[in-house]
Amino acid sequence: MQLPLLERATEHGELFALTPASACAAPSRTALTPDRTPGPGEQYRFHLDMSQCIGCKCCVVACNEQNGNPEHIQWRRVGEVEGGTYPDTLRLYLSMGCNHCVEPTCMSGCPVNAYTKDSLTGIVLHNAERCIGCQYCTWNCSYGVPQYNPERGVVGKCDMCYGRLTDGREPACVAACPEEAIRIEIVNVAEWRKEYGEQANAPGLPSADDSISTTRVTLRHDTPANTGRVDTAQVHLEHPHWPLVWMTVLTQMAVGAITSMAASQAIARTSVARVPAVGVVLIAMCALGASTLHLGRPIYAFRALSMWRRSWLSREVLFFSLFAGAASGYAGLLWLGSTWSAASGLIAAFTGAVAVYASARLYKVAARPAWNNAHTFFEFFGSAAFTGTLLAACFMGGTRMALLLAACGAGVLLLAQQAGKVAWLLRSPVFELRAAGELLFYPLFPLLAMRLGCVLAVVLALVFARDAAWTPAVCLVVAAGAEILGRYLFFVSVVPKNMAAPYLRQERAA
Q1: pLDDT, tens digit, for every residue of 258-311?
Q2: What whole-number distance in Å separates Cα of residue 427 and Cα of residue 446?
Q3: In whole angstroms, what is the distance from residue 337 CA to residue 258 CA?
Q4: Exposure of 330 by Cβ count < 10 A (0-12 exposed, 13-18 middle, 19+ buried)?
Q5: 342 within some domain
Q6: Structural domain that includes position 146
Q7: pLDDT digits over 48-66, tens only?
Q8: Strands 77-85 and 42-49
């Protein structure tokens, strides 16, 4: 009869063999987290060993439990990549939280300074009390780390379990991993800037160049050269952001109309009616007010002005506010019949052009390749010229024909730009660009065709029926509808950079 383990060990004097190390009970803490705090020029970072990760998602569950997140909001996610040639194939897993980048794009774009990089640990922290829920950081991050919680109206993200780490405990994901695939290390930032390209990049991850991710990834020694993401068939439409659709289209229409009116008054010496100018200002005001509906916490919208030196979102708010004030002044001087009205109109037009530029620049982010190009600027300014000149033509009798011809030219250019953009996207070797083109050319093609058809109908009406009394008003309605549809396509067709997702979507997984 065998004796119990403890009795046998005692009998043979081998009790020392039952130490925690020999019993393999749990890994030592020093192996999972550093035994010191970062020094000058250093910071904490994650280390993922892909040769150890088995895709069990214990880290995901532990993170959600630690932070009280609902199931659909995951600050740590596990993606899948595969490679090789049948029958010698290999599937690997990526467990990623926040990369606590050296140059975090979430922080640089935040209009309310809700992000800070801790001076002692290098951890990128998010202040939910400061956040207004604009979601701009979710567009800026190439890894999709910040995630919006609609129930709270704010964004949240991984903070490396800052409280646990400073108390000498492992982050929840590190402690929960049964394979010790996730660890915390200390990295010298200056040295990492020189070598991150070899250790921060991995199949299924966006390039670390966007923000200099500090996460170190260890690949399996036998990782096939053709290893890549398995979720390329999971491309889906993004959120339409309807308040932003209306805001961008209507503010650009107002800028185009004010510019056309001011130019007609200054160059052609054409008088401008008082009521139309006031109406244009009201359109701009309503559009700016509607944009706050996009925020998770619209009551704090005023905070968006605080970071105008750094954030393009703050600059957009600032310059559209200045445009609204300048346009109001222009309308007031017109109402009074002042000789200074023409000069004030040109000032309003200038501030409006700067505001449209800031609005377009807001969307030029590396994490959204389909936005990060000259097409965005062309679409925004083209929309202002197309709809704004039509709106002005409804009230400017003296320069009516010139404005209609300008609108016709803008429509032709928009048609050419849209066709060229779709062709460029479809031919692109970049996955996100090609996928955006496929969304436009396949599931969204009826809407794209409708948008282009409306623009073409306006152009034809301006060519063959520009003398008719109904032409400006009818063309304006059709053109505005076309631009609203086009802006909807702009938002939903963008394919963001992100880490590879699981083979099965979460809602479809068994």
Answers
A1: 999 988 888 877 777 667 778 888 999 999 998 999 999 999 999 999 999 999
A2: 20
A3: 17
A4: buried
A5: yes
A6: 29-234
A7: 999 999 999 999 999 999 9
A8: unpaired
